[in-house]
Every structure is written in structure tokens, then in C-alpha cells.
From TrEMBL:
Transmembrane segments: none annotated. One of its GO terms (molecular function) is ATP binding. Keywords: ATP-binding, Cell membrane, Membrane, Nucleotide-binding, Repeat, Translocase, Transport. This is ABC transporter domain-containing protein. Residues 5-241, 258-504 form the ABC transporter domain. It comes from Johnsonella ignava ATCC 51276. Coiled coil: none annotated. InterPro entries: AAA+_ATPase, ABC_carbohydrate_import_ATPase, ABC_transporter-like_ATP-bd, ABC_transporter-like_CS, P-loop_NTPase. Its main location: membrane. The keyword Plastid does not apply.
Amino acid sequence: MDYIIEMNHITKQFGDFKANDDITLKVKKGEIHALLGENGAGKSTLMSVLFGLYRPEQGEIKINGKKVDINNPNDANKLGIGMVHQHFKLVHNFTVLESIILGREDTSLFGILKTDKARKKILDLSQKYNFKIDLDAYISDITVGMQQRVEILKMLYCDNDILIFDEPTAVLTPQEIEQLIKVMKQLADEGKSIIFITHKLNEIKAAADRCSVLRKGKYIGTIDVKTTTKEVMSEMMVGRKVSFTVKKKDIKPGASILEVKNLILKSKHSGKNILNDVSFQVREGEIVCIAGIDGNGQSELIYSITGLRQPDSGQVFLNGRDITKESIRKKSDSGMAHIPEDRHKHGLVLDFNLQENLILKTYYSKRFQKNGFLKFDAINEYADELIKNFDIRSGKGAYSIVRGMSGGNQQKAVIARELDRNPEVIIAVQPVRGLDVGAVEYIHHRLIEQRDSEKAVLLVSFELDEVMDISDRIIVMYEGEIVGNFKPGDITVEELGLYMSGAKRSGGNGENKV
């Protein structure tokens, strides 16, 4: 059988750590080939070898049956290989057009940039794939979903035939995911070959033809997606059976822990209300989930509660005490944990090592310092404990630089730090984004464990399955307002979608529905 890509016996090491251990991957022309594995299984590393970002210690790569030497991404591009990275590679103060043509600019005799041909080609591509995008908008001003479209257009503009998507759905809404899968199928029908890295078995079932599974740096096998169940795939991935049903006991919520009253936040640019008179409570022993399509004020609401932004009016209470204007450290010390939406921007210091990141909110406590000097033995012991308890995987353990860790293990580090402080309220924004099914099961278990310990949990999620499975109460936000407030058993996914899109709403911040 002819393969467009053959990666034979690839081994890639970082020091003594084998990220890829004798892996063979073969991809057919015109197929969507999923690459499945836990966080740290070696998927992104293997694709970085194919894209020329890493050089393997052993193995060979063949494209269309011919052995090739890929030293860098320029070599990969010449061979028709493009890649959309998990963390986008875009220049934030460039326009969409400038970002797409970067490195392939057309200039006049005097070095003046010519964009007419490029603009027409990109507009034709965006129309063909139904990408509604403003070519003159700045990258910093567009949503993450739009940023991903820019990355895809970069590949299509370069006429790449082999397209690598590394965790492409991690930051997308359900609607955007559906649209992306349609685009991927359209590209495959046109003869392009797609490698699709994901943890999400539903997406593999919806999009892929075949799936190769990696576990702890080793190749486990390749299966036909149509004839293989999700249960079999998950067991291949994590080496054990995984439960897809969230089990939680009935519990009666207690006193109000977190209360938000009449919160208003105005846009810095337009002066319009991003948050419009938002009020709700989270009680001890309950998980309240904020559902909605991305960009409807969820991020700004969390920023206002946690102290990243000051609201224009309204109040935030923790255990009956007004904490609206308190510092982030005071809020944290008062019992507020925050698992942020953007782990790179608000959750981690990427150039610090893992143990330094694990004590970011407690380094000043007596446990970790004396007379202003850090107690490194205590810090190291604590980090090792959290690494073990939360299964954080990295090449050098506590001394690993966080920037070099996989996205899922970075997320586990944030969750470990926040939950281990025994908080009163846990504010979790997309806490399982980018995690494999085994880790998702574990994180959900930990959040339910917090709820069963009579803690309050405020969850923001764009995953409707997660919203319906683990919440005790669902608040729907649309255009900065609460338009519905429900118990999961009282609403269908389809009806929830209508509230999320603004087609339905209930009055009075939705309180009449509970």
C-alpha cells in the first residue's frame, strides 16, 4: 500500500527522557488520521519531528515513498507540510493579512509590499471554506476561534498538501468544532492528508478515518475508527478502562459562599456594558456552571470576581464579606482558588520551573520561607508530593521548565496548586481544556470531591457534555446578561443551545427557573 507519509522507527530523546520511543506512523493520501494519546504521550513531539522543529536521534521519514531530510520548518513547507500548533504562532500586532503572508511576501522592485494578489487568493480561500474573517483586523482583536482560522488559511495559502492539526479544538466552542470538522472533511475530499491530534474521542469518531494510539512515548497500534468503540480507544490510550459517566451523590446545598450582586463592567473602548447587572450565588456543596458561547462576558465576569479587572459597579461577597476591591492575594488568602482560562497568561510563569510554579501563591507562607529566605527542601518535598498526587509528567520532575511541558501537564500543575490550598470556593474556567479522557475523569472527580466536602465550585465551560454531566445548576450567559438559570434535569441540550444563542431567555436573571 502507498502512503503519503511514513515515519519509521522514530526515537526522540530529551536528555535521558524518551519522548518518542521507536514509533512508526503511516498516513494514506486523502485521509484524516487521528493521533490519540494521553498528555505527555509524545504526540506533539512526533509531529514536531515531522514539521522539522526537532531532529530525531533515530528513524527515517518518507514522503510519497521517497526518503527526506527535514531539518527545519522551511524544509517541511517545501515538502507541502503545514502545521497548526496547539498554541498559535501569530504576531499579535500584525493584521490577519500580514500574518498569513508572513515569510511569503510579494514585493515590488523597490521592496514595497504588494498585497493585491495575496488578498484576492485569501478572500477566495475564506469564501471556499466559509471562513468569515476581516483581513484588516489585528490578531490581538480577534477571538481564538478566528485566530485558528488564520492559522488554517496560512497553510492553505502555502498550498500545503499535508496538514497537521495539533489539538485544534481545545479552545473552540461546540459550533466552531462542528465547522472545523466540516472543513477538515472538505480538505480530505480534495485529496489533502490530515493528521489530527486530539484527546476527544467524540471528535475522532466524527472526523477521522483511522487512528494511531501512543502511550508513554510508545506506539500502541492503529485502528479503523468506524469499527472501533470509544471504550476500546480509551483503554488503548490510558492502559485501563475509563468511565464516561460522572458519578455524584445527591447533596443539599448549604449557605451562600460566593455572591455576585448587580455587577456591571463597561468596555474600555466603546463604553458599552460587557456585563449588565449580573447577580447570582454559589452555595456550599454545589457546582454552578456558567454556560454560553465564547465571548458573551464569561471571561470578564471571572476577571471581575477574581480581581483581574475592577467592575464599574456591583459587589462580590465571599462568606458574606465584601471583597470587591481587595487585592488578588487577599482574595486568594481568603479562600478563593482560580483555575484560569489562559494558563499561559494568568496561570503560570513559563520560564520558571515546575516547583516554583507550584508555590506561586504560597511562597511567602511560613512553610516555604523563613526571614525572607526560601526553604528549598520544603519546596522540593511539596512539589514532589503534588507531582505524584496529580500525575504531572515532565522530563526533569520538579526542576522541569514549565514552557517545555505539554499543555495538559501545564494544566494539571495549575489545578494541583489551586486545589491543594483547601479553598472555600473554586473558580474553574475550562479546567479540562486540552486534557485526555483519563485526566478529564480525574479532574471531574476532584471537583466533585470539593463539592462533596461542602466547598462551592463555579465552573465556566463551553463543553455541553461537561455542563450537563457535573453541574448542579446551570447559569446561561448571553451578551453579558444571565438569560437562564436551570437544574440540568430540567433542560435538554437542544433547549440549552437556544438560550446560549439568545433565541430564548427567562426574566429576572433567570432565578425563576430554579
